[in-house]
TrEMBL record:
Residue stretches making up the Transketolase N-terminal domain: 11-262
Alphabetical keyword list: Thiamine pyrophosphate
Protein name: Transketolase
Translocase in keyword set: no
Species of origin: Aeromicrobium fastidiosum
Source organism phylogeny: Bacteria, Bacillati, Actinomycetota, Actinomycetes, Propionibacteriales
Amino acid sequence: MAPQDLRIEAEEARLLILRMLRGGRSGHVGGALSCVDILTTLYFDEMDIDPLEPTRPDRDRFILSAGHKALAQYAVLARRGYFPEPWVDTYSDLGSRLAGHPDMHKLPGVEANTGALGHGLSIACGIALGLRLQERRSRVFVVLGDGELPEGSNWEGAAMAAHHQLGNVVAFVDVNDLQISGRTADVMNMEPIADKFAAFGWKVRTIDGNDVEQIQGVLAEVDRDSSSPTAVVAQTTKAKGVSSLEDTAASHYWKPAAAEMAEAEAEIRARLQQLSLQTVAR
């Protein structure tokens, strides 16, 4: 998919994220907005998937380790056709398929229940090893947050992936520099993140995680026949796309007033209109 088309899809997903917040009245919007460009590029441009066959055995898999960013995954799954878009209006309702964290038993396209931070990478590595034992060429993509890196299970997964030479694992670390308690550097500084993954034996790339062309570029460099897993350190902006919230800890879990919601939606719609005009002019 052309980068401009991916940008449009990412903005459409941002609107759906706000639509879910409008219905649910609150949610983990900051991290969802920071990682949505990564998820959009994976689902629309990179992964071998079929929304009409969400359990096809040879599909690529995606694990959202930072499960509280589920708003981003729900938005992209809806845009990709995994479920009817009106389902997003049920977000956080009692009995909804779209809960605060993804549930593989309720929603097609969700590969694992996540939300207890630190476990997604290990789950992804286990799936990747199983796929290799089945002699499948499927890949496993995982998105972690920089705030969950202090969890020790991440590094058990990192060691296991390198030891078993799981070249079919690609991990994106969404480094938006903030978590619910404040700056990650102040709460638990895990830098240098790239050097840590490299020390475990991973191939490491560092990019702007809100730039779809850089995301496409780094994915084009991944060799599926490599014996080394790949870590992409993606520097992003918390709440990217809503300027009043960007780079604030307050965006981690947001309860918007009506005026704040209207302003945020108007900003994204204006950007969408501009992108669409640019596309027509090409």
